[in-house]
User: Fold these one by one.
Assistant:
Number 1:
Amino acid sequence: MSPRAAWRLETLGFERVHDFVGGKLEWLVAGLPTEGTGPHHAVAGEVVMPATFVCGLGTLSGVVRSKLRAGSDSVCAVTNEEKIVLGRVRWRDLPDADDVPVEDFMQPGPATVRTIEQLGPLVGRMQETGVKTILVTDAKGRLLGMLHRGDAERLLNERP
């Protein structure tokens, strides 16, 4: 809503009026509620899960190995102190030695999606490329969680 509209609502007696300057897209990205009868497309934010393990550049491979479960969809998000995604480590990327810092074997600059990414096309791309998980970030690159393709496929199958 525009600042002018917010001020007008206050003059009409509304007490809880907010000027949300980000617009509808930012509202949706923030996961805030919406109303209406228009079409609803399932989006990544509906199935994003907290990352099971997050590590830093200096985390040693032995620590990562002890925290991740073995498997092709097991991923550690590599972030800085501000939770900005710097890379990712998959189980298969782990070196044999336990004293190697993550920075030496991580995949830098991994693909990420935003919470408003439509699930249909996203799942299609994930299926085509064999990707089982993808990191979900905000507009500034902060980690919000992970999206597992199986969860997204289930949601799409439950909805008409």
Note: The longest helix spans residues 119-129.
Number 2:
Amino acid sequence: MNRHNAILEGLLFSAITLCLSYLVFWGPIAIFRVPTISFVSNVRGPIWAIILFFIGGFVPSLVAIILTRIREGTDGLKSLLQRCLQFRLGLRWYLSIVIVVLLGSAGQLLIHSLLGNSFNFSLYLAQLPSFIPLIIIGPISEELGWRGYLLSKLQLKLNAIVSSVFIGIVWAFWHLPLFFLIGTSQHELHLPFIGFLVGTVAVSIIFTWINNNTNSSIWAAILLHWLYTYAAQVNSTGVTRSPEYNWLEFSPYVLIAIVLLAIWKPKHLSLKQAKS
């Protein structure tokens, strides 16, 4: 594939994904203040709004599938989907995914504790029934797009850190309508968008690190997203929210990203690639 074309395709993917989010699915119901469904409160809106809300969450993966089919044909689409079944990551990288989420979540709870609050750790067990369904909302609905399609395109021309920052920004702005959509955690918990943006860029760097060390396995990204989403859900329902906590919430993941950049270097985020 021509590298210049790859960048254009990445930009096209980003533009289509943002436009669908803003103009078709999330934007209109946010502008007209129509509630959807909440996982952090008792908000429940009309069924049509809930349907738009959920379909909107699948936009990144659906756009990736459609563009891949158009540009690369059946073989390209088959290759994209096969990366979702690329389970042989090696024990080291399975452990790395788990440790990243454990450190990030523990850091958030440490901040919560330092602010003078307590946390009910039994929530991690109490909310286990939601763990399996969470693989759909976020991991599968997004990762074919962000890591499966966009990251693969950008890294044909750009280095790992630039690609990660670009994706983090697009990823955060894709979520922007949710900050105005009644019922979402972003709206109900009064999350500051700038803090969310910085955190999303940091998390994007972590995702690229995992991607570049697991032979671009989409399954690895799905697993990281899955565990991250579950931990974030549990923590969000158990912490005592305050402006201070909301601004500091993503700082553990920012620190993890900084450490990874210091060790693995920003050009490739992979020691193996950096030596080649």
Note: The chain is about 70% helix and 0% strand.
Number 3:
Amino acid sequence: MSNLHVLPELTFNFNALEPMIDAKTMEIHHGKHHAAYVTNLNNALANYQDLQLKDILDLISHLDVVPETIRTAVRNNGGGHYNHSLFWKWITPGGAKKPSSNLEKELTAAFGNFDGFVEKFSQAGLTRFGSGWAWLVADKMNKLSVYSTPNQDSPVMEGLTPILGLDVWEHAYYLNYQNRRADYIKAFWSLVNWGFVDKLYMAAR
């Protein structure tokens, strides 16, 4: 039996993140952009029942087994679906100021202090040329690092575990911030759902 991928519902209203992220941007981002990734992914998999049975994480973690004729479509749209499904959980109305003490301790060890992490992560998003994502990831040895990926590439494609991610495609912020990506990134820090970040970090250990 085939398993179609579906657009996840948001756990908050479109206007819940205002003024940091406006309602119209959220509506378009979720209902148009993410929805298109899901539709295009399902279309790409239409003739491959074995691949339809894989969950999204398994699918994009093993792109080498995806036929070359649809690999780019699965990479782009599957990555977009997976990344955004996490992103909606990484942001929340009235996010906490900081992570748990355990994660903050690890961030301090990796980046000097929490502010050092925020600066490095923000720079990863700010300096990503064109469209892409900024990431906090854990490797197989549980070492934390920050970097960015182009387009809808996901850290799981490189064997890394995403702990926190920020969408820096223009569709994520352009209606409100225009070309002021730095302002959007600054606003992001007041929306971070550190409870979910902590959960992912603990699961990666």
Note: The longest strand covers residues 132-138.
